[in-house]
């Protein structure tokens, strides 16, 4: 089972960071550690700063105070391509250039492995093929991205990040637009990648999926971390009530034994 | 990117068409010269008069048409890629109008010569670009804001330019108006060399930035995670793009349509996603060479090529606007 997997001390952590957009401070004095080898899932209500945290972890957003540290060195001190071969981000919104085909888009994930003088290699080809196969998009590879359904498109973007072949993957809402079967398929894929040694960090909205798949959960509210740890240890009725303002019952998931949240609603 | 056979083939065909257009342009005129003699003249042979007509009268003009057309095509490709919009070309977003303003100020207020005018055009283009960029800036200049603000700026500068010309006394106004029509008339090798020098400086930098440029088309976050400093890259590309437009404006006056249309036509032909620099440059060169030939020979009188391109460009722009509005 996933719970038995060994997770090491953190390679990637946020240390006393202030995250802001100009005047607007989202997180103050934020400290978060991503256990190495974990499948970490970030949960929290809308606008609680999940994407902001993920962007800081990927160096897309620089903290105005404090630091994000990878292997003991601040992200700011890394050479950018070297960092891009270590950390891959699926942003919440990306743009596909007009008329680009699936294969060409996924191939752009190889950018950090290439240079002006080393443009396209067999390793690139293999990485793209593997990423297409892993996301079930091989059949789509010659199609223009504009003509795909939302769910197909989302899987293509995930394939692009996979093609980057980074040991750490940061995925912002990778399951949006996916039907339930494809959501589970994608989470299974993340779990497989994690089992093969990659550290996966994902923002998810479905708490039950988070409890089922995460080895480590980070619950956020108003830009602060409210709780973090293994789902079994931290997901309680009080936590869900506190973070989401949702009265609920928690029962053991009949399949996996992980916490299963049942909203009380209005009865 | 992977080996791109179609792109290479398109570029080869474009080069061939440019060569054909060049041959036609060198042999036609008041003194028609058979292609065989043109060839001989270019290689240093042929009759002395023929050699003079070909190499000193017609060749510099043809070279400038190709080089400036290429520069305009590149500039258009850069800005259309940065704004992710086929309307985001420097002639639409005010940079050409700004270059003309700079040149007008030099011609009318300081009665400057060729190089001063060119310098004024360069300064005007850069100043306009800086204004548009700063006005559109909100945590990085966004494509659509840039276009809307640029179109507004272009209209304002257009009115200001017209006012400046009306204020001037007749001879100065005439020379300003002639320059403002955008023409390759009377250009010689003296004007070719600075253009070549600038292009030799700019194109290698642009070549090195073309892969990051394509990556930037995926959005800032995606570009940053592939190891690109998006803000710095965008600024560098804008400077190069403005320099290319200003270069053309300085040498020949404002010539519209080429930077708007060349990248889009090239894209249709290569069927590639995004904007591709080399085919855009070649397409720009071909378009301007052909347009200049038509302007010189098709109407009995020599028209400024800018008049040609602006009238074709009007229709194209209308079509583009209608198509964008429908989306
Ligand atoms: N580019 C931005 N500029 C200004 N404010 C932003 C930007 N992106 C997000 N925010 C604000 O930051 C807060 C947290 O956003 P975000 O991290 O995207 O939340 P989440 O991903 O948890 O829904 C929100 O209040 C949002 O309005
Ligand atoms: Mg978000």
Reported for the largest beta sheet of chain A, the result is:
6 strands, mixed
The CATH topology of the largest domain in chain A turns out to be: Rossmann fold
How many separate domains of chain A? 2
The main pleated sheet of chain B reads as: none
Range of helix content of chain B: over 70%
* Number of DSSP-assigned strands of chain B: 0
Order of helices and strands of chain B: HHHHHHHHHHHHH
Distance N terminus to C terminus of chain B? 29 Å
User: Could you say what the CATH architecture of the largest domain in chain A is?
Assistant: 3-Layer(aba) Sandwich
Helical percent range of chain A?
25-40%
- Order of strands in the sheet with most strands of chain A: 6-7-8-3-9-10
Compose a concise summary of this entry:
The complex is a heterodimer of chains A (about 270) and B (about 325). By secondary structure, chain A is α/β, with parallel strands linked by helices.
Structure overview:
The complex is a heterodimer of chains A (267) and B (327). Mean pLDDT of chain A is 91; it is low at 1-5. Chain A is built from 9 helices and 12 strands. In chain A, α6 (180-195) links the parallel β7 (168-172) and β8. In chain A, strands 6-7-8-3-9-10 form a 6-stranded mixed beta sheet, with helices on both faces. Chain A has a 4-stranded antiparallel beta sheet with strand order 2-1-4-5, with helices on one face. The relative contact order of chain A is 0.17. In chain A, 30% of the residues lie in helices and 28% in strands. Chain A has 267 residues and is of the alpha/beta class. Chain A folds into 2 domains: 1-86 and 166-267, Rossmann fold; 96-164, no CATH class. Chain B has 327 residues and is mostly helical. Chain B has one domain (5-326): ABC transporter involved in vitamin B12 uptake, BtuC (Orthogonal Bundle), CATH 1.10.3470. Helix content of chain B is 78%, strand content 0%. In chain B, α12 (277-297) packs across α13. The longest helix of chain B has 36 residues, at 48-83. The mean pLDDT of chain B is 87. At the A-B interface, α2 and β6 of A face α8 and α9 of B. The structure holds adenosine-5'-diphosphate (ADP) and magnesium ion. Magnesium ion is lined by residues 50-51, 92, 172 of chain A.
